[in-house]
Amino acid sequence: EDQVTQSPEALRLQEGESSSLNCSYTVSGLRGLFWYRQDPGKGPEFLFTLYSAGEEKEKERLKATLTKKESFLHITAPKPEDSATYLCAVQATSGTYKYIFGTGTRLKVLA
Amino acid sequence: NAGVTQTPKFQVLKTGQSMTLQCAQDMNHNSMYWYRQDPGMGLRLIYYSASEGTTDKGEVPNGYNVSRLNKREFSLRLESAAPSQTSVYFCASSQGGGTLNIQYFGAGTRLSVL
Fold first, then answer.
1. What is the per-residue pLDDT across B18-76, written as a single tens digit (0 to 9) for each?
2. Cβ of B42 and A45 within 8 Å?
3. Residues B106, A43: C-beta atoms closer than 8 Å
4. Strand partners, A85
5. What pLDDT score was predicted for residue B99?
6. CA-nearest residue of chain B to A50?
7. Which of B36, B12, B8 is nearest to B23 (CA)?
8. Could you say which of B97, B102, B106 has the minimum Cβ distance to residue A34?
């Protein structure tokens, strides 16, 4: 069964304290892995998509990496405005365009 | 630059009442989706429409119906609302197919069923 697990569930960081969020996945064949940011009361906002092991994408303080079993979202020197829930989703090669979402990591960055 | 627009933003229903959640996208996308988001459960797919004129069940379709009215609009109907349908509902759209299948989400509809 296709599955996505994110860890930790919640993370508190001091401003400037770098860390990583994990997304482990089990899927028959990976079409793509997607990272989203969700602020309270809003819809998910697209950040990155990764398609093959070894691929990396960067945007400001965020860097996403992909292996055959997991993806990491590295946050370098975070700021309070990086506080949000980060969602990971995978799309399998079989069948349709459906995503399978993880339950997210709630990040709080303290000033 | 509206993207995906959902109406209403908030709704309170009594058990047994019906309502339709509306979704429209202006990105000329082929595929559209309805999700519900519950604490600790993540986003779960209710129904999707791969292209205009087609709809398919997702992970949790019971108690819901959908209509793909045209390429822009995809509505979700609750015929007889139940407290278990209290949730936040998100509509999303994507170009569909291959490497272009990034889903873009609306701001959500927060529904309470009493």
1. 999 999 999 999 999 999 999 888 899 999 998 888 999 999 999 999 999 999 999 99
2. no
3. yes
4. A38, A106
5. 55
6. B99
7. B8
8. B102
Minimal Cβ distance to A97: which of B40, B43, B101: B101
How would you classify the pairing of strands B42-49 and B87-94?
Answer: unpaired
* Cα A24 to Cα A19: distance, rounded to the nearest angstrom: 17
Q: Write the DSSP string, B56-111.
A: EE-S--TTEEEEE-SSSBEEEEESS--GGG-EEEEEEEE--SGGG---EE---EEE
How many residues comprise chain A? 111
Q: Which residues of A touch B101 (CB under 8 A)?
A: 31-32, 91, 97
Q: Which band of pLDDT confidence, cut at 50, 70 and 90, is reported for residue B98? A: low
Q: What is the pLDDT of residues A17-44, one digit of tens each?
A: 999 999 999 988 888 999 999 999 999 9
Q: What b/e sequence results for A54-83 when a residue is b if at least 16 CB atoms lie within 10 Å of its CB, and e otherwise?
A: eeeeeeeebbbbbeeebbbbebeebeeebb
Q: Is B58 part of the contact surface with chain A (CB cutoff 8 Å)?
A: yes
Q: Which residue among A43, A98, A103 places its CB closest to the CB of B45?
A: A98
Asked if residue B97 has pLDDT above 80, the reply is: no
Q: In terms of Cα–Cα distance, which of B54, B66, B40 is closest to A97?
A: B54
Helix (H, G, I), strand (E, B) or coil at B33: strand
Q: Which amino acid is at A11?
A: L
